[in-house]
Design goal:
CATH topology of the largest domain in chain A: Peroxisomal Thiolase, Chain A, domain 1
Strand order of the largest sheet of chain B: 3-2-4-7-1-8-12-11-9-10
Number of strands of chain A: 22
CATH superfamily of the largest domain in chain B: Thiolase/Chalcone synthase
Number of helices of chain A: 11
Oligomer: heterodimer
Number of strands of chain B: 12
Largest sheet of chain A: 5 strands, mixed
Strand order of the largest sheet of chain A: 1-7-6-4-5
CATH architecture of the largest domain in chain A: 3-Layer(aba) Sandwich
């Protein structure tokens, strides 16, 4: 049985103030904010960022399998995990597959990853919204969490190990969405509460029994699921000691659906002491419970960017902009040619560059090249290049512009010429940035994004964003 | 590396140029017929007298048929070529070499572009998306990268740089106002230019060249034959064309305050023409002012101003119509318009008028005082990854 060898979380930069929805629509007002994936993010790109954080926390541990779970996949019929696999520069011999379509996929993916075999990376990601003015839009949130599951080893000790699992399954119509629909539907809220109650209680009781502990022994209770009232009712009934039920982060991030149990587990691990018990209860079309025990390795193997440091976000998005990003408000495009879809063969040839941000370094003179070249720009040596991944290398802005004419779902396009630490230059878009604040000399880091979607094709590539320090 | 040049071996004996602008009532064929016929009449020859043709266009047609079909050229060689925004100059250069080689006696270089039929702002896309990893910047955005880099390197504050850019646009509009063929034929107050809506970086709409339709043509012959066609031919002194390695966007040593390709083509052209001090020897220069920061940097790259001082020279009026060296006396890309394939030949058309004393209200005084050389500079691509043409023509063969 595997444990968690490393974890990482990514919460997008933008926040929507729930009062902005009420102000625009006269809808019931919520309080606090929700996290919003930018116009250039989707569940795949969010997943890449979380996975990068997890892999950074366990250098040297190479996943042999990758499971991607989301209720909101960017592609159907085509595997999304392969793009994450490519963006992480993982070995071609590893498995990468999706477990997508519903929130419960997340609990299932993590459970499957713990079963054994080689190191397995689980990526849980979601973008949650619904029709304007509805509860899903207001209470939802966007984010991703990733867990690298492996056997405990001296060089890569696990930070938490599963003590017990339990599940309860039943078929009932509480929340659903037809493929292609923009929003989910829900049955009357009280029915869901009724259906989840006994399932939650059964699974929790079963898990505690298998772990050989009672509810007061649990140091951290995490109760997640799309049905908020069912979760609150269960939290009140499991027998948790006062103060041990974790904040659901609804006031800042919102409910991140498929990612949420993972996000809350990561938040608990960020703060937990060694040898504590964490119960993760996921209510989604049934109930899945895992009881974890933290290890002494936790203190030294946490990711750089804690969940707490990502709660506040970086920028506020207006409600009309939010609606535009999510496709609920179609705006007049600029009088420019339609954006072009990337072509499959060139994208496949450039996989290491396009997805992993792998350039080349001249073995004759040491010059770095982005994109990779065959002929060295400095010494003109031919075919003396070795691949070099620069996704995690910071850079400095040499010059920049704000393009108000170029097509973008969220104009203006901000772009810069950036020089990487240790050599190499690239010209790319900036994202998560205030156009008025960009200066020559600013430091930036790379982030994996969906540049645009054209002709039914998502164009994934890297942009730069202001260096976030912790992240 | 040898660049021997063909100084004084080829002469221009006729030119034509349509008005540039929004030709809603004319197609590519009409523009080509108009420019070709004006050039033929100017040289006093018939279409059947032309032995070979070079057609330059970026977007407005493929193959020599683009020209032979509307002109009904009877079974003659017609080459179609493109070299980004330097396409017109490239057509001219190849026609000159054909004549200089002795392969043909009379050649026509003609450029055309019909941009206003696309329905979009700015230029259409060039080529396919490929792997989708190239930043989707527009032309003004690419050239606007020069502005903050130049300001930072030479300690020019943002407000002063904007004033410099504004003065370049103001000057070119002022010149264009005197030109009946220009797209924009009126002066524009500096305030209007400075406050125009932003397009990219500090560039407002008035910092950008006109998107337009147009065509221009030149007829070239061997220099020894020139007097058979006109008493006032222009002699080709230098033709330099440089394609850089496109290193700027991948090499941190490039600083976005210069076009190395322009510097190289200027050095080559001055050597071919025997020019030691361009600012003192040239009567005028038509340069590729696609955006105002481009003209600023070109003043230094072409050796008209010392490095880092171009902005002061612009503000001092050095390059005004009545300044020390008139730059873009016809209004430039800014005011005359920029139908891509035609622009390089349009620049030559102004040299043709000015050196022959036919520029009317725009006539540069230094020509009468004995300056006999004109420079044209044409650039394609973007800072750090471009092609550059520098040509010099003169009204007298060297002694």
């Amino acid at each position: 049985m595997h444990g968690i060898a490393a974890y990482g979380v990514y919460v997008p930069y933008w926040r929507l103030d729930r009062k902005a929805i009420a102000a625009a629509l006269g809808a019931p007002s919520g309080s606090g904010t929700r996290a919003v994936a930018s116009y250039d993010e989707d569940t795949t790109s969010l997943g890449v960022e979380a996975a990068r954080a997890a892999l950074r926390a366990a250098p040297g541990l190479r996943p042999e399998a990758l499971y991607f779970a989301t209720a909101t996949p960017a592609y159907l019929d085509k595997t999304n995990a392969t793009a994450i696999h490519a963006a992480l520069g993982l070995d071609g011999s590893s498995l990468a597959c999706d477990m997508v379509g519903s929130v419960r996929s997340g609990a299932g993916a993590l459970r499957a990853a713990l079963q054994g075999g080689g190191p397995t990376l689980v990526v849980l990601s979601d973008i949650r919204t619904g029709l304007p003015g509805g509860g899903d839009e207001r209470e939802g949130g966007d984010g991703a969490a990733a867990f690298l599951c492996a056997d405990d080893a001296r060089e890569a000790p696990v930070v938490a190990e599963p003590v017990a699992f339990a599940s309860a399954t039943a078929e009932f119509l509480e929340r659903w969405r037809l493929p292609g629909d923009a929003a989910s539907r829900q049955w009357e809220e009280r029915f869901g509460e009724h259906a989840y109650g006994p399932l939650g209680e059964a699974a929790v009781t079963d898990a505690l029994k298998r772990a050989g502990v009672t509810a007061p022994a649990i140091n951290h209770w995490i109760i997640a699921g799309p049905h908020a009232r069912a979760g609150k009712r269960l939290a009140a009934s499991v027998g948790a000691m006062k103060g041990t039920v974790a904040d659901d982060l609804g006031a800042t991030i919102g409910n991140t659906g498929t990612a949420h149990a993972g996000l809350l587990l990561a938040n608990a691990l960020d703060a937990a002491e060694p040898d504590q018990l964490v119960a993760v209860v996921s209510l989604a079309d049934g109930c899945d419970v895992t009881i974890w025990r933290t290890t002494p390795a936790l203190a030294t193997r946490r990711p750089r960017a804690k969940v707490a440091s990502q709660l506040a976000g970086g920028g506020q998005v207006s409600y009309p902009t939010f609606l535009t990003w999510r496709g609920f408000l179609r705006r007049e495009p600029p009088r420019r040619p339609d954006p072009q879809a990337p072509e499959a063969p060139p994208a496949a040839r450039a996989e290491a560059w396009k997805f992993a941000f792998t350039g080349s370094r001249c073995q004759a003179c040491g010059t770095r090249h982005l994109p990779p070249q065959r002929v060295c720009v400095k010494c003109h040596a031919v075919d003396r290049m070795a691949p070099e991944r620069l996704a995690d290398v910071p850079a400095t802005i040499a010059t920049f512009t704000v393009d108000r004419l170029a097509y973008s779902l969220s104009p203006p396009v901000v772009a810069a010429v950036i020089d990487f630490e240790g050599g190499g230059r690239f010209q790319c878009e900036l994202t998560d940035v205030d156009p008025a604040a960009v200066k020559i000399g600013d430091r930036v880091e790379m982030t994996f994004r969906r540049l645009l979607t054209a002709g039914g094709v998502h164009n994934y590539f890297w942009k730069a964003r202001p260096l976030t320090g912790g992240k | 590396m040898a660049s021997n040049g063909i100084r004084d071996r080829v002469a221009i004996v006729g030119m034509g140029c349509t008005a540039f602008g929004e030709h809603w009532d004319k197609g590519v064929n009409d523009l080509l017929v108009d420019a070709a016929n004006e050039a033929l009449a100017s040289a006093g020859v018939a279409l059947s007298d032309i032995d070979a043709f070079w057609l330059g266009t970026l977007f407005s047609g493929q193959s020599g048929l683009t020209l032979s079909r509307p002109l009904k050229i009877d079974y003659k060689p017609v080459s179609r070529l493109e070299n980004y925004c330097a396409t017109g100059s490239e057509a001219f250069r190849n026609a000159c070499y054909a004549v200089a080689s002795g392969a043909y006696d009379v050649a026509m270089a003609i450029g055309v572009e019909k941009l206003k039929d696309s329905g979009v702002s700015g230029l259409p896309n060039i080529g396919a998306a490929g792997d989708g990893t190239k930043a989707p910047l527009t032309a003004p955005a690419m050239f606007s990268l020069l502005a903050p880099a130049y300001a930072k390197k030479f300690g020019v504050d943002d407000a002063t740089l904007k004033e410099v850019m504004t003065r370049i646009a103001w000057k070119n509009h002022k010149n264009g106002a005197l030109n009946p063929r220009a797209q924009f034929r009126k002066e524009v107050p500096k305030d209007t230019i400075a406050c125009s809506p932003l397009v990219a970086g500090p560039l407002g709409i008035f910092d950008c060249s006109g998107v337009s339709d147009g065509s221009a043509a030149a007829i070239v012959v061997r220099a020894e034959d020139a007097r058979r066609y006109t008493d006032t031919p222009l002699y080709v002194k230098a033709l330099s064309f440089i394609a850089g390695p496109a290193a700027g966007p991948i090499d941190p040593d490039y600083d976005y305050t210069t076009f190395p390709e322009v510097v190289a083509s200027a050095v080559d052209a001055y050597a071919q023409a025997g020019i030691k001090d361009p600012r003192a020897e040239l009567a005028m220069a038509e340069v590729h002012d696609c955006f105002t920061p481009t003209e600023l940097v070109l003043m230094e790259d072409l050796g008209f101003a010392a490095r880092g001082t171009g902005w002061k020279e612009v503000l001092a009026g050095t390059f005004d119509l009545d300044g020390e060296l008139a730059v873009n006396p016809d209004g430039g890309l800014k005011s005359f318009g920029h139908p891509i394939g035609a622009s390089g030949l349009r620049m030559l058309f102004e040299a043709w008028l000015q050196l022959r004393g036919e520029a009317g209200k725009r006539q540069i005084a230094s020509v009468a005082r004995g300056r006999k050389l004109a420079l044209t500079h044409n650039l394609g691509g973007a800072p750090g990854e471009c092609v550059s043409f520098v040509g010099v023509v003169g009204s007298e063969p060297s002694g």
